[in-house]
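B., you asked whether I could sanity-check this one before it goes into the benchmark set. Here's the sequence:
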Amino acid sequence: MGTVRLTMAQALVRYLVAQRTILDGQEVPLFPGVFAIFGHGNVTCLGEALESVRDVMPTWRGQNEQSMALAAVAFAKAKRRRQIMVAASSIGPGATNMVTAAGVAHANRLPILLLSGDVFASRIPDPVLQQVEHFGNPTTTVNDAFKSVTRYWDRLLRPEQLISSLPQAVATMLDPADCGPAFLGLAQDTQAEAYDYPERFFEPRVHTIRRPRPDSDDLAAATAMLSRAERPLIVAGGGVHYSGATAELAEFAGRHNIPVVETIAGRACMTWDDPNNAGTLGVIGSASANALAAEADIVLAVGTRLQDFTTGSWTVFQHQAVRIVSLNTARHDATKHLSQSLIGDAKVSLPELSAGLGEWQAPQAWKAKAKSEYASWLNEIDSATAPTNAELPSYAQVVGVANRLAEPTDLALTAAGGLPGELTKNWRVKSVGSFDCEFGFSCMGYEIAGAWGAKMANPDREVMTFCGDGSYLMMNSDIYSSVLSGHKLIVILCDNGGFAIINRLQNFKGNVSFNNLLADCKVENPVRVDFAQHAASMGAMTEEVAGLADLEQALGRARAADRTYVIVIKTHPSQWTPGDAWWDVGVPQVSERAQVRQAAADHDEGKRNQRIGV
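And here's what the prediction gave me:
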């Protein structure tokens, strides 16, 4: 067997370059690029190896380790987990900055390969700069923090360990059931150490995504349950997108006359005017979807983990005999809440389930109710987004203007604060796969960083990201990244004077406004940020608009611009679109405030509708 002598860092990079995948019928790199900020721990060895392949696997310099890793997460989502970006940091704070992004990837079941420098395997230069020492366990470093937010974790202390570890990391990231972030801690001296690696380790390999089919007994049980349904409901999750099963979902729903409601991750599985679309389910969903969920007797959950914002903390399903059929590649998700599990890939499993049902259809009266509820909800959207002469526009009105002007191929993106609710409710999806709301981790800062990654994944589409002033102040440096790299974004920055949606929750549970809106904080000098000038200093084209008519004109200029364009608009801090489901949060059982005591009583009343198990 032939060998080639390489450093561990060189071997790692060569292996990544050799991995291939199939995307839209074409063979492409599995790892098309690297986001990196170099420092001690990765610059001299990993940096040297990456420079040698810069033409085939480009390295993009981030401005912040967290944001560059968030961009990598958004890239993977836009590519439906078919391609994976690498994020590389130095040791210490460079590494821990990426822990939050790893949490985003983990919660959203998205692949990213995280490479961080680590301490010396020899322990001779000990402690090194930025090392956090654990007196009773010298094997512990800050990289252990990634264990709670990754699907695969390893620390490489010998160069030959790469041979067994890297394939396992790749297999984890490509596993539809176990997909998530993989982490490798790279000891500084080990990166530099040479080893005679087998040549076949670097042979090109084309990877395909496994499509498991459901067990025949499970399929029969699920078919029997659905065929008895009088008010069936499909809940479509993000797994529908990752499977590439949107067409199969539409075919299944149409053939069997079943209304479809979407989760936040499943948003844009269908266009807004699809005859089977009944809205978005849950806490920031639509009144139509929540009304149907309350009456459904059988729920077919496809590719969803049924988190609390989808289920209204398990209050949206109110039929006394409701049962769930859960179609999912992940056993963990498929068996939640006493579901009839159907472990399989949606793209191949839905047609098999449909074949078992034959010509069975849900009653026409149920479909008519879904159409009626959804039509009423669309009227609510029209009302919420209609322009008025109010001094400050609402989020919904801003969304409405942008939505009316958007092209079908445009991607609408957001992540945290009040905008996820307003976009999920009010954005009328014009094409499948044109919506990205990161709400698995609801990470402030994903808005701009994620938009950069999404644009990198789809350079021919317009990426329109909606960002609140709080998220912007938390993480905005990838405006500069997008300008440097030539990945143009349209950023709509809604300034409502602080963390307004959390202020809403605070007030709703009986508390006074405190430490959320700038007006209610301990502030000596109440200075408002000039967001337009700030973004302009990073090279973006910018303007601040005074109202909806000006916003419409500005969006035209932004679309025609040759680089990232930031539009700032002041918005109302307390005007929100209705339609919410109940949500379980802690409310003090004892308080001196009568409003808090009343909120606690109201909350206890809401908890009576919670289902345990289902």
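One thing to flag: The chain has a mean pLDDT of 96. Otherwise nothing jumped out at me.
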